[in-house]
Specification:
The structure holds 2 protein chains of 2 kinds. By secondary structure, chain A is mostly beta strands. Chain A contains 1 helix and 9 strands, in the order ββββαβββββ. A 5-stranded mixed beta sheet of chain A has the order 4-3-9-7-8, with helices on one face. Chain A has a two-stranded antiparallel sheet with strand order 1-2. Chain B starts with a strand and ends with a helix. In chain B, the strands form 6 sheets. In chain B, strands 11, 12, 13, 14, 15, 16, 17 and 18 form an 8-stranded mixed beta sheet that branches. A 5-stranded parallel beta sheet of chain B has the order 5-2-1-9-22, covered by helices on one side. Chain B is of the alpha/beta class. Chain B folds into 2 domains: 230 residues, FAD/NAD(P)-binding domain, CATH 3.50.50.60; 170 residues, 3-Layer(bba) Sandwich (FAD/NAD(P)-binding domain). Classes of the chains: A mainly beta, B alpha/beta. The interface between A and B is large, with 37 and 38 residues. The complex binds flavin-adenine dinucleotide and FE2/S2 (inorganic) cluster. FE2/S2 (inorganic) cluster binds next to loops of chain A. Flavin-adenine dinucleotide binds next to helix 1, strand 10, helix 3, helix 4 and helix 9 of chain B.
Chain lengths: 106, 415
């Protein structure tokens, strides 16, 4: 994937290279261990994390730091987990959240 | 029971933790993010002396210092509620419950949203989200984007995106509506940018501020602001344009950009489509103070500080026994000011824990915070000092009211 910034003019080369495997909606992906799920998915070209409960419209991250709850997914069967705050681990099973009450923000 | 608990591992919380631990307190730091550093992590800019301020490095330095001093970290742990009974604070998290006589809220700031039609599409994110993706996670928010909202933070982040090889097609305004108000008016935006021109990352703003000393000149500046905008590090800043719509089927595919007049009204027929794969929204920052509200701390609206702030004094004490605040929860400023406030809070907490002879150190720390503010590279509000004075006046008024009511209550008791 070319979406990662492997070399940065000020921050230098990326040091982490410990890739782990996880699934999102039954498909397998690789992410860097302990990076956020939101970052790992975006690095795989995935922006849509769930669909809105009522309108069915696609939703992705908004704030990326835990404030807006737009990025809720299920992780290993537990619902309502914020993808932007959750570190990726080997073997994680991630799924789009379905039936939670509509979001706080919108 | 811990001597001191700190919620928030940003520059304020980390510095407070280090200070408390140096004074011999047992300290616990709780943060919902997976790394310590808070919003300092994403910061990256060149200081006037030519050195780069690398937020990740600065965060790691503070974190390692705290760990070396024995500070106990609970990361990935969100605090849901706090409560006081008999002088002891109880902190409820998703996992454990904590207790302490001395609690610091250093929860920082949040970004205000700007609803633009289409803003719920995947690929639309806050400008801070793009900063974290790019500088902390090292994942591009997209290949080519537009930033809606022109302010100090969005200008700085536009430059950071550029640095990482992400194309910023335009830094522009939202179409005015009741919510966007001044943020959508070129004249007001220019006005607010001029106040920060001394630190402006752009020669344009620096140069522009000399040209546009008075209102008349400023108005002229907007009217003659080239329709195509001006470029800053090759990024077009377009104050004569506004995004009227973000479009795309399942993800962002582009934005509709229109020409606006000096009052922010769209010139009909001027709309054009700009293909992009992400959009950043920059609505400005406000103090994240929910936990102080839950605790029952009085609040005041101080515009210069970025919104509602919990009442506090220069020693970073709230009016509630054993509750302290530091950093952006007390008003929006840069990381160095937040850290300086964190040191003061840490000293006040050590004092509360029974350490004597700290008054001199606390006074010095308060003075150092002021100096840091005077020398700040980034200033989010030009009248920050006025804001700081306002909240201190509120503190004095609150204290003398309290005394008066104590006096009248006791009189009432006699008759
Ligand atoms: C998106 C964003 C981008 C910014 N970018 C810049 C910039 O480029 N340059 C600049 O000078 N300033 C920037 N700032 C301003 C920034 O707030 C200050 O520079 C500084 O980081 C404030 O420090 P702090 O310690 O007060 O709070 P923060 O650094 O915000 O740290 C607060 C911490 O508290 C945690 N927290 C909050 N609520 C809870 C809870 N309920 N439970 C557990 N943990 C919690 C958060 O996870 C966070 O780690 C930015 C602010 C934001 C919001
Ligand atoms: S993107 Fe806002 S909470 Fe995760």
């Amino acid at each position: 994937m070319t979406r990662r910034i492997l070399d940065h003019p000020i921050l230098g080369k990326m040091e982490d290279n410990n890739y782990v495997s996880f699934t999102f909606n039954q498909k397998g992906y690789k992410g860097l261990e302990n990076e956020s799920l939101a970052a790992a998915l975006l690095a795989n070209g995935i922006r849509t994390l769930r669909h809105h409960e009522e309108s069915g419209s696609p939703r992705g991250i908004y704030c990326n730091i835990g404030h807006c709850y737009e990025c809720r997914v299920s992780v290993d069967g537990q619902q309502g987990i914020r993808a932007c705050l959750t570190p990726v681990k080997e073997g994680m099973t991630v799924e789009s959240d379905g039936q939670l009450p509509s979001s706080k923000r919108r | 029971m811990d001597n001191a608990i700190i919620i928030g591992a940003g520059p304020a919380g980390l510095t407070a933790a280090v200070t408390c631990a140096e004074k011999g307190l047992d300290v616990v730091v709780i943060d919902e993010y997976m790394r310590a550093g808070g919003r300092l992590l994403g910061q990256l800019y060149e200081e006037p002396n030519g050195n780069w301020w690398n937020g990740i490095k600065e965060s790691n330095k503070l974190y390692e210092k705290a760990v070396d001093l024995g500070v106990n970290f609970h990361l990935n742990t969100a605090v849901n509620n706090i409560e006081n009974s008999n002088g002891i604070w109880t902190i409820y998290t998703e996992r454990e419950t904590f207790h302490t006589p001395s609690l610091l809220l250093a929860t920082g700031a949040a970004e205000a949203p700007v609803p633009v039609p289409g803003w719920t599409l995947p690929g639309v994110m806050s400008v801070g989200a793009a900063q974290v993706m790019t500088n902390v996670h090292r994942v591009k928010p997209g290949e080519r984007g537009v930033i809606i909202g022109v302010n100090v933070l969005s200008a700085a982040i536009a430059m950071e995106l550029q640095l990482a090889g992400v194309e910023v097609a335009s830094l522009t305004l939202p179409k005015t509506n009741q919510v966007t108000q001044d943020a959508g008016k070129p004249k007001e935006v220019l006005d607010s940018l001029l106040h920060v021109s001394h630190m402006a990352p752009s020669p344009f703003v620096r140069y522009g501020s000399k040209l546009m000393k008075n209102d008349f000149m400023k108005k002229l500046g907007v009217n003659f602001f080239p329709k195509k905008g001006v470029k800053m590090w090759d990024i077009p800043i377009q104050l004569r344009k506004a995004v009227t719509k973000i479009y795309g089927e399942d993800e962002v595919e582009g934005v509709t950009l229109a020409t606006i007049n000096a009052d922010g009204e769209v010139v009909s027929g001027s709309e054009e489509h700009i293909p992009v794969d992400f959009v950043c929204i920059a609505g400005g920052l406000y103090p994240l103070a929910e936990l102080a509200a839950v605790a029952g701390c009085p609040f005041y609206l101080v515009e210069e500080l970025g919104g509602y702030v919990p009442l506090h004094n220069e020693r970073m004490e709230s009016p509630l026994e054993g509750l302290y605040v530091a950093g952006n929860i007390t008003g929006i400023e840069g990381a160095k000011v937040a850290a300086a406030q964190g040191r003061t809070a840490g000293l006040s907490m050590a004092h509360h824990a029974g350490m004597d002879d700290l008054d001199g150190e606390i006074k010095n720390s308060i003075k150092r915070t002021e100096q840091t503010r005077d020398n700040a590279h980034i200033q989010f509000h030009p009248e920050i000092e006025t804001g700081r004075k306002k909240i201190l006046q509120q503190w004095d008024a609150y204290q003398s009211n309290k005394e008066r009511s104590v006096v009248s209550n006791s009189r009432g008791g006699i008759t």
